[in-house]
Amino acid sequence: MLNIDEQFLNRLKKSQTPLIVFPADWPGEAVAVSATLFQLLEKLGKQPTLAAPPSWRQKTWNFLPSLKKIKHQLESSQPLIISLPAKEAEVARIKYNYDGEQLKFFIFPKERPLDAKSVKTENGLPPHDLIIVVGAVDLDVLGNIYTDNIELFYKTDIINLDCQAENEEFGQINLVDLSAATISEILYSALSENERRLINNEIATSLLAGIISGTKSFKNNHLTPKTLELASLLIAAGGEREKIVNQLYRSRNFSTLKLWGKVLAGLKSELNSALIWSYIHQEDFKNTGANAENLIDIIDELITNIPEARVITLIFEDPEKNGQLKTILSASKNMDALKLLKEYKPQGNFRLAQALLSKTDKIPLEIEKYLDSLKQQLSTWLNI
User: Fold this and answer.
1) 41 or 110: whose pLDDT is higher?
2) What is the pLDDT of residue 204?
3) Which of 49, 64, 77, 172 would give a disulfide with 152, using CB separation of 3.0 to 4.6 Å?
């Protein structure tokens, strides 16, 4: 019986038109590993498609060549084929008409009339014969790529590639290793010598970017000797570490840095630093020239620099929504951002979620209520 790595490689070899997808919030490690897979599959003579919902984070990752080919929506899952007997009649032209209720095709022959009985219809093959899902705990986090194409996901074999404990193992092949520090390690370990020989400097850079992003530039607590060994191998293969670090961590614009200063000035901690929070006024966005999207970058920096924090939340007055009070919350492992925000109907996933706190002008009361709720839940989870 084939082991899981052999099953993975065997299924890749059989595929001709694989689809590679990652979560809608563009987690860096999943993006980089997906880009790596896209490049490897192209070198293996496949016709891969890379897809994810649009995100402002794409500009951060466009230094990886594969990301310039990404699609934000898929073609129809299964085409309808209309066949005519070419030997019996030649077609002069084809027109169609849609009246709001029916779509009609008008086929005009050159000479002899066409017999309706000779027209055949059939469903063509789906555009993808395999789906590779990278870094997703379930299919819902894929956003519209999944919800708009549920039938395709239902009928097509799925390879599930991940290292998160919350993964629901939804694939036919679940390449899920909870002991791995990064998804990059899982992918590299599964490759045979044949695929590893295809790793050039571009592929090495993509895979190394997954490691650097997944370990917060080698600063988190999940590093292993295997992680460092693979990073060394990829750098030796041409992986551009300096380029990656510059793109991911040294390319903050001036507006983000100014907003970062505002966040730091108001930073507060609760429950022995298990909860870190800050409040950003509408005027702070106006004065810095930043916007709410920049808060994601700031959250990433806080995660890297305050490893003891279990929950980091930024409460802000949305400058584009008339100052509506909102929050963005990041949860560490064994925490669930969606559950922490459940009374506010959050959007996102268990790692990072956003929610509307209030549309009223009673901001201090809403903030106090929100923080009390978080502290109560955290105290229960952490037995404080």
Assistant:
1) 41
2) 96
3) 77
Q: Give the CATH number for residue 373.
A: 3.10.310.30
The pTM for the full model equals 0.76
For the domain that residue 189 is a member of, what is the CATH number?
3.90.1640.10
Tokens of 290: 């930043």
Q: Which residue segment(s) compose the domain that 225 sits in?
A: 4-74+127-248
How far is it, in rounded angstroms, from Cα 256 to Cα 60? 14
- Pick from 47, 46, 48, 45: which is nearest to 35 by CA? 48
Q: Please give the pLDDT value at position 384.
A: 65
In angstroms, rounded to a whole number, what is the distance separating the alpha carbons of residues 33 and 163? 12
In a domain, 16, yes or no: yes
Beta carbons of 51 and 77 less than 8 angstroms apart: no
Please tell me the total count of domains within the chain: 2
> Rounded to 10 degrees, what is the CA torsion of 244, 161, 24, 313?
-70
